[in-house]
Design goal:
Blueprint (H helix, E strand, L loop, with lengths): L18 H11 L15 H7 L4 H8 L4 H7 L1 H4 L3 H10 L3 H24 L16 E6 L5 H11 L8 E2 L1 H4 L7 H10 L1 E8 L1 H5 L1 H17 L4 E5 L4
Parallel strand pairs: 1-2, 1-3, 3-4
């Protein structure tokens, strides 16, 4: 009997998944499987990549990463998939264990999202627009505790002598609730690079992890150097 996926999962894209759901997917799919699926695909993140026609070199680059599945989920062609479509890919590689564990909790996310959209109760953050489209030389990714350093760095890099234009969320986002779709759209369409401020608190931040992994995924997809690390405080 064929495995049936709830149609309500078409209401949610991979990009819309909360960070904890992405991490849960990674915990399953990052573990490389020895046995292949019935159709000859790897039963881990590589099998998803193969079905999306990623090249051998792209998959090889993913294999070198600490969180290959997290980076794969950040690829534009993956992020825009519905969760329903992603789970169909999981069926193709025989990962019914993931479906059994994740469908109930993600359906809860779908219900929350539908109710939120219906009631218009969540205000999305959007960049403050002074022009029709603003281009930034870099998005600055940092832990909240490092904001003072970020302000000093920004003040220097945006001087006329240097001439950079940076996106700093505490300065350039309207007051509201941070959502991951906002960041993804911003870094894909308006920022050329990402500066990451490395510190002990950076590595403790789920937001910093998501943002840097998303940018790393874009870098692989576009074959460009996007991440620019700055060591602020050593571990």
């Amino acid at each position: 009997m064929a495995y049936e996926i709830d149609k309500r999962l078409t209401e949610l894209t991979v990009r819309d998944l909360p960070l904890n759901r992405r991490q849960q997917l990674s915990s399953y799919l990052n573990v490389e499987q020895i046995l292949m699926s019935d159709c000859g695909l790897a039963r881990d993140y590589r099998g998803i990549a193969q079905q999306l026609n990623l090249s051998y070199s792209e998959i090889t680059q993913l294999e070198k990463l600490f969180d290959p599945c997290g980076s794969l989920l950040s690829y534009q062609q993956v992020a825009k998939l519905s969760v329903f479509d992603l789970f169909e890919l999981l069926i193709s590689i025989g990962r019914f264990d993931i479906l059994d564990d994740m469908i109930p909790v993600i359906l809860d996310d779908v219900i929350i999202r539908i109710n939120r959209d219906h009631n218009q109760s969540e205000q999305k953050l959007v960049p403050i627009q002074h022009e029709s489209t603003i281009w930034y030389d870099a998005y600055v990714c940092y832990a909240d505790s490092d904001l003072d350093f970020v302000r000093s760095l920004t003040e220097y890099l945006e001087t006329p002598a240097v001439g950079f234009r940076l996106f700093v969320r505490d300065r350039d986002l309207m007051v509201g609730n941070w959502v991951y779709e906002t960041f993804a759209r911003l870094i894909e369409t308006q920022c050329r690079r990402m500066i990451i401020i490395l510190s002990p608190d950076f590595f403790k931040s789920h937001d910093c992890k998501f943002q840097s992994m998303f940018a790393a995924g874009l870098a692989i997809e576009k074959c460009q150097r996007i991440l620019i690390p700055i060591i602020y405080k050593r571990l």
